[in-house]
Design a protein that fits this description.
2 copies of one chain form a homodimer.
Chain A lengths: L9 H16 L6 H7 L14 H26 L6 H19 L1 H7 L8 H25 L5 H15 L14 H20 L5
Chain A binds a DNA duplex through loops.
DNA sequence: CAGCGACGTTAATGACCGTTAACTCGCTCC
DNA sequence: GGAGCGAGTTAACGGTCATTAACGTCGCTG
């Protein structure tokens, strides 16, 4: 019961700070001494908790992909009821992804930025999880819009991920909508994109 | 007349290969020897053409942002005619951005991945160009959808950029639409997202 | 043909960085 | 109360890498 409590374990502290630093300056751009300093210990002390710098990145990326997929599967399972199930499930998937993108920006950033820095086996695992997540969406989308052909649906899902994951890229300047307004806006945009994808443009 | 000819200058070769390598493995992930090898010369020979590795990245990023902005401005200028000008201009901007995203994937990738690796002055310049480009879009979008408030329009434009720039992330596996089909699909998705943003969700 | 400038080459330098070694300290549990 | 262990510490090693130095070689020009 310790790992899920409010107070973070040392390991979790490290992972959280490492995620932030990796997202800010890239995997190769941050040294182990910096990660250590961010949690109040220094440099090689990290090796009591992780096998190496690579292991931290691997755990982060596998964790993200896994959590996304698990959340998606849970929502799909919960949706086995009602008649308009597909519509509701799509909304649920969108909502879940938005929550993730808005609340875990560093992880989202890492997710499609540092995948290539992984050992082959870890990268394969992450990619497999990502693929399953995409296929889950594709099925639901084709359930809602039966007219869509599969490659189109897959490309659309990727594009919508790009749309939903765009928030980390704009943090800095001027006036932006607040968190809830942003969540509603992104949801609307995603639905609009799917609807537009479905209206076949065979012109 | 040399820099725009079909045969690339040595400098341009280097930039092109550097862009590809940076996009594949990150700025810190590729060494100058690799870049040199990619154009048939070795390591330090690059310093006859560039002040350093940083200078290559800077030139790439400034070049991308500049070309995007220039293209956008040109399209805006060309659109000063006709009655439904705003609609057509938005379509033109979307089309231009899609062409760029589909034809210069490595540059698009670099564009929002390695900005933080720049010297302060270069980063400021790039960000300024990016901001101008965004504001150009925002104006056009608000012209087409006068009901949209500015922060909403700006967030939407960012999100649509995320959508249009999503193509580099999916190159590898299964069946995907071909280039032209993809361009049409992305265009439809973008228009759908804008339309959805405009339909105010004050529910 | 002297010479110079553009373009490369290899070798050396110096910094940085991930990882390991060796050691310390404080707590817990027989 | 001391054996053992979890969690840190600093110092050192080894490798990588951007950058510079020193040197060579064309090809053009006067």
């Amino acid at each position: 019961m310790s790992t899920t409590s409010a107070a973070l374990t040392r390991r979790e502290q490290i992972l959280k700070e490492a995620a932030r630093l990796f997202a800010e300056r890239g995997f190769h751009g941050v040294g182990v001494d910096e990660i250590g300093a961010a949690v109040g210990i220094s440099g090689p002390g990290l090796y009591r908790h992780f096998a190496g710098k690579d292991a931290m990145l691997a755990e982060l990326l596998v964790g993200i992909s896994g959590r996304l997929l698990t959340g998606g599967k849970r929502r799909a399972a919960e949706a086995r009821s009602g008649g308009d199930a597909a519509e509701a499930l799509l909304d649920s998937l969108i909502e879940g992804h938005i929550d993730f993108a808005l609340d875990d920006r560093p992880l989202i950033t890492l997710h499609d930025r540092e995948l290539d820095r992984l050992r082959d086996s870890d990268r394969k695992l992450v990619r497999q999880l990502q693929r399953q997540y995409v296929e889950l969406w594709v099925e639901v989308v084709r359930d809602v819009y039966p007219a869509m052909v599969e490659p189109e649906a897959r490309a659309t899902v990727h594009a919508v991920f790009g749309l939903l994951n765009s928030t980390p890229h704009l943090s800095r300047p001027g006036p932006l909508p607040g968190r809830n307004a942003m969540a509603r806006l992104l949801h609307r945009l995603a639905r609009g994109a799917f609807a537009a994808a479905a209206s076949n443009g065979a012109a």
